[in-house]
Design the sequence.
């Protein structure tokens, strides 16, 4: 059977991580697996995940020339590519409600994203809240396959960059991209400093080498080496306000640490406040500081949370178990009949016609938006080296000058 995942980007991200894990498992269990990628990529782009270089990754334009048994969209933009593929069946792996990625004022764009959840195709997701959202708002019966974890990599014992030391204050880890407002990465650093943390590390997928007030920065680290960082840190501060089912807290659980998180969607798949981590109402910066101050000074409470986190980790399924469930879902998909491609074509054309009309009205009412778009397009044409420097400066600015409120 020929299976194709439609992927937005092969760069470091939690969403791509999940796709690669399922794709590698299916390849090892008899499928011819292709990853059709929208953004340009190279061998260097794939190097962060140990399985990615061994997968068949091709530009999406090339993949459209082939025929597949099942094509799976994995990002809202890829849903609109489905009608260009010849396949026996079409599906959608929904990893988050991606309309939440965009500001509320971008009404036409958010509506366009939500349109993808109306397509008459098969659905699978990774979190209970997404499954319920799709059922209640769009009448879609999505299968649920929770993400697994690499038990061969994320373990409490093993190499560490700098092992934990009870004689020293607890070490704080902040994880996340910069330049993505809802990740609140810079805010996490600011609040850790405000709480009095003396040793702050940052793990990021952004091209950053130095940040003010941060002891060590780990940028674009290969996945197989991240556990060494987790095993060196006591507390992960992860304050994103939009998630599907985020992985970093679970990863540090497996490596002997605990976490402080907002009550973001998906946290309740495995995080229990006061048992394995601390859960704080979204946006409550003062509470983050007070809880972190307590954990920095109260080793007993910190140790109890870390023990609870290890118990959660022990009970959590591996990727082999998770991907076996995904395999079962794929097998079920192949038993059904596909929708007429003409329906997918018509829905795609109508979605973009509605978006174009509504967005033109929005831009006419606010010309300043057009100027910002033009600047963004111009900036994207700069050489890669220049873009990296700009991103470094932007990250420094976020940490040094960013506001004390969550996005």
Sequence:
């Amino acid at each position: 059977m020929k299976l194709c995942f439609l992927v937005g980007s092969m760069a470091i991200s939690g969403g791509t991580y999940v796709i690669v894990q399922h794709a590698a498992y299916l390849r090892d269990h008899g499928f011819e697996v292709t990853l059709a990628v929208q953004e340009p990529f190279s061998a260097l782009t794939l190097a962060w995940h140990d399985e990615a270089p061994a997968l068949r990754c091709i530009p999406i334009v090339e993949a459209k020339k082939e025929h597949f048994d099942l094509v799976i969209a994995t990002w809202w933009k890829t849903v609109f590519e489905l009608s260009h593929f010849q396949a026996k069946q079409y599906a959608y792996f929904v990893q988050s409600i991606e309309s939440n990625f965009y500001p509320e004022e971008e009404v036409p764009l958010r509506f366009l994203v939500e349109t993808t959840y109306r397509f008459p195709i098969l659905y699978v997701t990774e979190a209970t809240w997404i499954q319920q959202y799709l059922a209640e708002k769009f009448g879609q019966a999505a299968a649920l396959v929770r993400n697994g974890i690499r038990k061969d990599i994320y373990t409490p014992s093993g190499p560490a960059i700098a092992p934990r030391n009870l004689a020293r204050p607890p070490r704080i880890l902040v994880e996340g991209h910069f330049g993505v407002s809802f990740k609140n990465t810079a805010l996490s650093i600011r609040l850790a400093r405000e709480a009095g943390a003396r040793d702050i590390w940052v793990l990021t997928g952004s091209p950053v080498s130095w940040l003010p007030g941060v002891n060590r920065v780990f940028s674009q680290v290969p996945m197989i080496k991240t556990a060494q960082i987790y095993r060196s840190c006591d507390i992960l501060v992860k304050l994103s306000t939009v998630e599907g089912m985020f992985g970093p807290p679970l990863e540090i659980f497996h490596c002997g640490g605990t976490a402080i998180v907002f009550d973001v969607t998906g946290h309740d798949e495995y995080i229990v406040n006061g048992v394995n981590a601390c859960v704080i109402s979204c946006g409550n910066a003062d509470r983050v500081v007070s809880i972190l101050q307590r954990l920095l000074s109260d080793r007993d409470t910190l140790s109890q949370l870390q023990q609870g986190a290890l118990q959660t980790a022990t009970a959590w399924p591996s990727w082999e178990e998770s991907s076996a469930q995904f395999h079962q879902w794929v097998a079920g998909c192949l038993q059904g009949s596909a929708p007429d491609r003409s329906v997918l074509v018509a829905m795609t054309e109508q979605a973009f016609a509605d978006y174009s009309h509504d967005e033109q009205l929005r831009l006419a009412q606010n010309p300043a938006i057009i100027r910002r778009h033009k600047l963004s397009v111009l900036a994207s044409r700069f050489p890669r080296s220049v873009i990296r420097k700009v991103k470094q400066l932007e990250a420094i600015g976020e940490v040094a000058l960013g506001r004390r409120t969550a996005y």
